[in-house]
User: Which sequence fits this backbone?
């Protein structure tokens, strides 16, 4: 993290408005507004899906129609009108790119602004990052495939996986997040358009960080991403997911589903830096981010979630672990920042089923402006989970007197051998700390950057290098001028 | 270096400084002593620019410019350093990162390029030796988990790194054992030159055995009421402050 310089930060701070607020004008091939069986058939046909997938979707749609939108989260927002959303939109190109040089120049420009230009791509080749770029709903191009292929690793768009590896998709999809799990998971299962698929074969250690950049590009287009990561026995993978979205006045719905399967002795590290458009200073616009993320652990396996959440108008997200296998380990490291009128209700669920399972939760919430930031976590120790252990630490930092921090920890323990620890703190950013920095000649903005990054260090340290630097900058940008 | 004229300041409608005068020239060490509640720490805070205090009168000239017109970080960048009575902990921020940020902010202010990593680390090694600060402490979070003595030594370490023109030590001796006191004093004495100056605020004469002041001032009820040489400190140690109060009453 020492590579990060204050000068870079200062440069980033110059542009105060949302940095990625631009749209790309590429002709869309999009479905009409609204949701019904015909739309689902349209999506499925567009993607040339096999019959079983269409049936899955229709079944999910039937389930979804019977479900009610949940309202237990500590957030307030105008419920989306599901008939007013465009469920499919693809960049208007039919052929797949053979090389990055063939990619539409305008799309390249978009990638450049996002920081993954061709040049960057080439440079990144040396640093072992493979990027699967998701623009709107279709994966435009996938890199590093051949290198990964040698090891038998599959890393492709979800649509491609359905075509090329239907047996793997069919075997695992919906096993961690069943269609009927919740309202948004059901909706996603019916209308998802694309996403990423990753499979690591037995005993293979993926030699590079796998990375996907998500981005919403079409006004009024709901994005329903589907991600499935399967780490077979004894394998390892580190997966990065980053999100940026262009500035929009109307609310955009994002309801993704991420499923992780860590088989016996496997390890999955899943890192997210989320920077969806949060709405303007008055709380107008911004993304609704209602995501279901869950992983299941086999014997002696490990799933580690790390997230840095700075964006979205409303966030509702609980990356969770089902610790099914004995000796399996679940971890959740989170930094959630809310400013202006943002609302976040986020946390995790650690479901201990196996013996000697262990989970760690480190959550850092930072609230500024008029925002509300809630931690909601469940630690559940089931009857047979002997010697289960959990450690939770939930810290909240308030930047002023008008924001709110809330903690809703739930513990359900059905086995007396369990050991559960929970620590929670709430503090206001110290005027004394800021004064101390000022007295040493450090400006207030930099002081806040230092203090906040220090506060989040335990979580930021979990991120791969590339993301840690980006995350530090994001934190500073998100909290600009927020001390009151 | 600094000239304080008729300085008046209050907090929450309570007058603390009531017309304080003090002049410090380059190369000098001034000690300010006085009973509890006399306004010693207020003076330090006001000079450093803490916003809790309202300046109601007077002026402060710092190297030819109006100190009270500058904000806290500008004063620091112009060379005013305050060694805190209660150094603040900043969890997760390494001392090194903190100091490097501070040094580069000061250098930028002086239109200089940022310090190179090599020069910076050499400086850290040199200056941490000065206050016998374990180099491990330099890479730990700012003051977090430091003992009282380590915190005070860290203040002097920072002072050594930032090379201020005017250093104000606010009760740096409080809570120090005799060894730490000697180390801190040794640091201050080593850093002394004819281009910088030091104001030592203290309760006890003890520190002045190690840091020998050119002048000793008694601050009482918001004013400097008596000024003398080092022997004044000894007299105060022996007789307390009551005789000064009596002298003033007459």
Assistant:
């Amino acid at each position: 993290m020492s590579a990060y310089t204050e000068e870079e930060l200062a440069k980033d701070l110059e542009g105060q408005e949302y940095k990625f607020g631009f749209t790309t004008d590429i002709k869309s091939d999009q479905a009409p507004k609204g949701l019904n069986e015909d739309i689902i058939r349209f999506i499925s046909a567009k993607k040339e899906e096999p019959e079983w997938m269409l049936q899955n979707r229709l079944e999910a749609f039937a389930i979804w129609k019977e479900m009610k939108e949940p309202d237990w989260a500590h957030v307030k927002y105008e419920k989306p009108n599901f008939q007013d959303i465009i469920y499919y939109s693809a960049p208007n190109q039919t052929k797949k790119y053979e090389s990055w040089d063939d990619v539409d120049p305008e799309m390249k420009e978009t990638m450049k602004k996002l920081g993954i230009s061709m040049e960057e791509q080439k440079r990144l080749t040396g640093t072992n990052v493979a990027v699967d770029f998701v623009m709107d709903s279709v994966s435009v191009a996938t890199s590093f495939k051949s290198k990964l292929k040698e090891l038998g690793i599959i890393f492709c768009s979800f649509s491609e996986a359905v075509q090329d590896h239907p047996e793997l998709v069919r075997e695992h999809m919906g096993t961690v997040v069943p269609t009927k799990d919740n309202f948004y998971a059901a909706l996603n299962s019916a209308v998802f358009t694309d996403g990423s698929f990753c499979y690591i074969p037995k005993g293979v250690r993926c030699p590079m960080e796998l990375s996907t950049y998500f981005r919403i590009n079409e006004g009024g287009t709901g994005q329903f991403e589907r991600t499935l990561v399967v780490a077979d026995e004894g394998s390892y993978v580190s997966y990065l997911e980053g999100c940026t979205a262009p500035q929009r006045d109307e609310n955009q719905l994002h309801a993704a589903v991420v499923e992780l399967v860590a088989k016996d002795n496997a390890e999955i590290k899943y890192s997210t830096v989320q920077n969806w458009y949060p709405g303007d200073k008055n709380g107008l616009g911004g993304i609704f981010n209602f995501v279901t993320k869950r992983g299941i652990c086999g014997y002696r396996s490990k799933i580690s979630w790390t997230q840095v959440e700075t964006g979205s108008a409303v966030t509702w997200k609980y990356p969770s672990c089902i610790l099914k296998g004995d000796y399996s380990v679940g971890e959740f490291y989170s930094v959630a920042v809310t400013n202006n009128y943002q609302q976040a209700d986020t946390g995790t669920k650690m479901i201990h089923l196996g013996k000697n399972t262990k989970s760690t939760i480190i959550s850092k919430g930072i609230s500024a402006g008029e925002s509300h930031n809630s931690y909601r976590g469940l630690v559940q120790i089931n009857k047979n989970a002997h010697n289960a252990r959990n450690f939770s630490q939930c810290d909240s930092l308030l930047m002023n007197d008008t924001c709110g921090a809330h903690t809703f920890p739930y513990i359900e323990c059905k086995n007396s051998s369990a050991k559960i620890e929970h620590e929670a703190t709430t503090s206001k950013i110290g005027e004394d700390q800021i004064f101390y920095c000022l007295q040493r000649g450090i400006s207030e903005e930099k002081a806040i950057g230092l203090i906040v990054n220090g506060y989040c260090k335990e979580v930021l340290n979990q991120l791969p290098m590339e993301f840690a630097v980006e995350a530090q900058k994001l934190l500073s940008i998100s909290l600009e001028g927020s001390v009151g | 270096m600094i000239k304080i004229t008729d300085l008046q300041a209050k907090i929450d409608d309570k007058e603390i400084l009531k017309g304080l005068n003090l002049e410090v020239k380059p190369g000098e060490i001034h000690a300010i002593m006085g009973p509890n509640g006399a306004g010693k720490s207020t003076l330090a805070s006001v000079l450093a620019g803490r916003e809790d205090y309202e300046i109601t009168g007077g002026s402060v000239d710092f190297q030819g410019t109006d100190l009270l017109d500058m904000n806290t970080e500008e004063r620091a960048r112009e060379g005013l350093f305050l060694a805190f009575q209660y150094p603040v902990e900043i969890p997760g921020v390494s001392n090194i990162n903190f100091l490097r940020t501070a040094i580069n902010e000061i250098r930028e202010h002086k239109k200089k390029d940022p310090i190179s990593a090599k020069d910076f680390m050499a400086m850290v090694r040199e200056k941490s030796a000065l206050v016998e600060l374990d180099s491990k402490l330099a890479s730990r979070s700012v003051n977090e988990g430091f003992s009282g003595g380590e915190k005070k030594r860290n203040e002097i370490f920072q002072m050594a790194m930032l090379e201020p023109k005017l250093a104000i030590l606010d009760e740096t001796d409080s809570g120090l054992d005799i060894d730490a006191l000697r180390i801190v004093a040794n640091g201050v004495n080593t850093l002394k030159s004819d281009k910088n100056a030091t104001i030592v605020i203290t309760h006890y004469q003890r520190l002045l055995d190690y840091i020998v002041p050119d002048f000793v001032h008694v601050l009482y009820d918001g004013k400097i009421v008596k000024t003398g040489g080092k022997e004044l400190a000894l007299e105060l140690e022996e007789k307390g402050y009551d005789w000064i109060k009596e002298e003033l009453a007459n």
